[in-house]
Amino acid sequence: MKRFLYYFLWSIVIMIILNTGAKYQIIINNQVATTYNPIPLYIYTSLYPIVIGLLIKLPILVENYKKTKWSIDWGKLIGIGLPSFYIALLPLIGLMPVTKVFLFDVVVMIGPSVPNIAGIIFGFFLLDSLRN
C-alpha cells in the first residue's frame, strides 16, 4: 500500500506539472501572437518535453537514491541520449543561421510530435543512464 501511495502521489505531481505547462504554453502562444517573436515558443517546446521525461524517471531514481555508488552508462547516454537530444532541439537548431541542418527537413516533414517524443526520451534516458 505504501508503494502504491508513493507512485500515486508522483502521478498527481506529474499531472499538476503537465497542467501548469499547458497553461504556460497558452500564455506563450498569446505572447508570440502579439509580439511576432517565436523564439520563446521554440525554447519552450524544445525543453518542456525533456522536463517531462525527467519527471517520468525521477520516482525510480529517488527510490534508489540510498544506494551509495553511482556511475554513468556512457553507451546508453551517447547511443540513445545524444541523438534524441539533437532531435529534441531541432526547432531551436532550425533558427540558427546555418544553411542546411542535418535531419531538419525530415523531422519537419514528419511533424511536430517527433521533437516532443525525442525530448521525453532524452529526459528519461538522461536519468536512466545513471546507474548504481
TrEMBL record:
Keywords: Membrane, Transmembrane, Transmembrane helix
Bilayer-crossing regions: 7-27, 39-62, 74-96, 102-127
Keyword Transmembrane helix among UniProt keywords: yes
Highest taxon of the lineage: Bacteria
Name assigned to this protein: VanZ-like domain-containing protein
